[in-house]
Amino acid sequence: MLSNQNKIKTSGLNLSYGQKQALRDISMDIKPHRVTALIGPSGCGKSTFLRSLNRMNDLIEGVRTDGRVLVDDIDIYRPDVDVVELRKKVGMIFQKSNPFPKSIYDNVAYGPRINGIKDKSKLNGIVETSLKRAALWDEVKDDLRQSGLALSGGQQQRLCIARALAVDPEVLLMDEPASALDPIATAKIEELIYELKSNYTIVIVTHNMQQAARVSDYTAFFYMGELVEFDETNVMFTSPIQKQTEDYITGRFG
């Protein structure tokens, strides 16, 4: 059965920025076609952990990583790993939507073009499919030439999701994708996450407990760079093992 295998597996993952240790000994199994939420107070290591799954932390000076991160049983920190290929496979959606100052069409076609796809009908198909998967097509199909920057905040975030989907990833990392959005746009993003998991493995950082409870199958609670507890979301939210987890989920601290 597919869901018993792991899409991503971390073991003994440590990460330091200079003298500051940001992650300590994180071991976690992330299932395919499931949503895994990372929760915990600000500065606890959630986003650092998320970025370690496609080596985005490599871009920060003075970062040291040890331990293992396996994606489909391949250690992504091996020296022979092609980081560009890795980031195609493991895409990233950021907290603040960041469309390019280009048309909607060119935003979505950007990745496929860089990867050598020039055929216009092929690009048209990728743009349409990606926008449909990001639940944006019906809103923009009549004006694909307008600037991505002219869209509303929620639409911009869905455009960024479409752009990530256009290079055919297998994993989507989402760093608080709805934190800057109003409740209606947030609901659309949550609905979209639910739909996307049938095709993608999703890991999402969220500050919002209700959001974690609504969208995720598994939840990991981080505190001070450590993984305190990890379980199925319904178990974590109804009968967590650690008192610290219960205190955080019920709002007693954090």
Topology record:
Blueprint: E1 8-17, E2 20-30, E3 35-39, H1 46-52, E4 63-71, E5 74-75, H2 83-89, E6 90-93, H3 104-114, H4 120-133, H5 137-140, H6 153-165, E7 171-175, H7 183-196, E8 201-205, H8 209-215, E9 218-223, E10 226-232, H9 233-238, H10 243-249
Parallel strand pairs: 3-8, 3-9, 6-7, 7-8
Antiparallel strand pairs: 1-2, 1-4, 4-5, 9-10
Task: Report on the architecture of this protein.
- The mean pLDDT is 94.
- Strands 6-7-8-3-9-10 form a six-stranded mixed β-sheet, sandwiched between helices.
- It has helices at 46-52, 83-89, 104-114, 120-133, 137-140, 153-165, 183-196, 209-215, 233-238, 243-249, and strands at residues 8-17, 20-30, 35-39, 63-71, 74-75, 90-93, 171-175, 201-205, 218-223, 226-232.
- A hairpin with a 2-residue loop joins strand 4 (63-71) and strand 5 (74-75).
- The longest helix is centred in the middle third of the chain and has 14 residues, at 120-133.
- The chain is α/β, with parallel strands linked by helices.
Elements, N to C (H/E): EEEHEEHEHHHHEHEHEEHH
Estimate the global geometry from the Cα principal axes: globular
**Number of continuous helical runs:** 10
Mean pLDDT: 94
For the secondary structure, the number of strands is 10
Spatial extent as radius of gyration: 18 Å
**How many strands, which pairing sense, and closed or not: the largest β-sheet?**
6 strands, mixed
Q: Could you name the CATH class?
A: Alpha Beta
Strand order of the largest sheet: 6-7-8-3-9-10
Annotated CATH homologous superfamily: P-loop containing nucleotide triphosphate hydrolases
Low-confidence stretches: none
User: Looking at the chains present, what oligomeric state does this protein adopt?
Assistant: single chain
**CATH-assigned fold name:** Rossmann fold
